[in-house]
Amino acid sequence: MTAMRRLMLCLGLVVFSAQGAFAAQGEILARPYGTVPGMSLGYWEYLPLGYDDAPTETFPLVVFLHGTGEVGNGSATALEKVMNLNAPPRLIRNGRDFPFVLIAPQRFNAFISVAEIDAIIEYAKVHYRVDPSRIYLTGISAGAIQTWAYAAVHYNKLAAILPIAGNASSLNLCPAAASGLPVWAFHGTADGQVSQWGSINPVNQMNTTCSPAANPAALLTLYPGVGHDSWGRTFDGSAGHDVYAWLLGHSL
């Protein structure tokens, strides 16, 4: 990256092209609230290595939704709270490269609505070179609850979901099951904030109650004795799961 580009990024300038925001490939970049026309929330943006060099190529999109501990107004300062999580934004800042576009929005409360999630995905499809057949949604805690909620309605827009420490016990997920939406849920069995049954029940519903049952079968990984933070070990791979390869292995 040239010195001039680094200067521009440090100053927080937002430059647009016909394809959207100025590409900062291989880096995590803050897009504070009010600086990106068409986006109602501040967010973290990551464009994969090679994005600038392949102007006709499309890329998978991962949207990451935070929990209640990371709420904020989307300012540059507030967005730093998202970096407290051992999750994709911080992993990227610490040097990990991913082969997908990442958008990690911040909201003043963590229960981002289905309509807001849909607006983010539709914005990304227009302003970034996103492969519409490879859009993935993941979130933790409240963000996982809303991941489930979005998938229950817009399952036809998603290639796979990865909800961690969420709760979808009250949702009708049979349409998503019938669509073949791949699901992999994670939860700690000692979670004192969101019961493990918030993940067990929806997975059981999709696999045993729905007719037709989910195909592929919805997956559930429970971590014995683990509390609410079941996401760190999931996202960084220390629990032995490559969730990114799993996500990217699915497409519409």
TrEMBL record:
Pfam families per the UniProt record, alphabetical = DLH (PF01738)
Indicate whether Signal appears among the record's keywords. Answer: yes
Q: Does the keyword Signal apply?
A: yes
InterPro entries found in the cross-reference section: AB_hydrolase_fold, Dienelactn_hydro, Plant_Biomass_Hydrol_Est
MF term (GO), any: hydrolase activity
Which SUPFAM superfamilies does this chain map to? alpha/beta-Hydrolases
Q: Cross-referenced Gene3D superfamilies, in alphabetical order?
A: alpha/beta hydrolase (3.40.50.1820)
What name appears for this protein in its UniProt entry? Dienelactone hydrolase domain-containing protein
Which regions span the lipid bilayer? none
Q: What are the protein's UniProt keywords?
A: Signal
